[in-house]
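Homework help board

Subject: predicted structure for assignment chain

Our instructor gave us this sequence and asked us to write out the predicted structure in token form, then describe one feature. I got the tokens but I'm not sure how to describe them. Can anyone check?
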Amino acid sequence: MNLSEIFAPGLLAGRRALVTGGGTGIGLAIARELGTLGAAVTLAARSEERLEAAARGLREAGIDANARKVNIRKDEEVTALFDAMAAADEMADILINNAGGQFVADPLDVSANGFRAVVDLNLQGTWQMTRAFAARLIPTGRKGSIVNIVLSTFDGSPMMVHSAAARAGVVNMTKSLAFAWGPKGITINSIAPGTIDTEALDAYGRDAMVAWGKRLPVARLGAPDEIAWATAYLCSPAGAYITGTTLIVDGGQHLMGADR
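My token output:
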């Protein structure tokens, strides 16, 4: 679908988006969409080389984009990121918490350290980015938008119990902060993707994932751009009265139960 058929050109002009995990996959698609709509974009992740290549590709497409390295699990790096952005006069008013990760394992095979690492990344890391963003934005009186990318695991996820627990925490955090920060001019929502066709699928067996997609009510895998469009909607004026909610973008996966 042509972009112009969905959103008006320049819809997000004058805004800046900070996208974690923005070097590849869903994060890069979101950054590209927001940038195409006029927002300046800062990509943030651990891999500096990958980030720089992604930012360069966005700039070649006419998007105002740069890259900043950060490990969201390390609070001192998160603080340094926002200090650097403030010093460069590039403080964002849109935060996309897309960085995260997990692995597939039988619950009995998930060690305490494995569980802790996944929760630390997906829940604690998201909190650290969210708190630092709001702490910078609220004193200025600027309005802002936060979108947390979680997973469609609402009927449980037996082979990713660690990630399902962490993402559920993010969903409830989203609701809690919507109450706390709505009066401050900040909306915060989550998007729960289903199985999205990115390079990350290779780690789970692409052929099996494609076959799985054919069982869905919308009988295919999702595209990264479909998550990007949902994100742009929530960050746009059309989403200004939406906060504390989770938008499920999964082709109906959440209707199929945990035994999938």
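Reply (TA_rk): Your tokens look well-formed. For the description, you could write something like this. The two ends are 30 Å apart (CA to CA). That's the kind of observation they're looking for.
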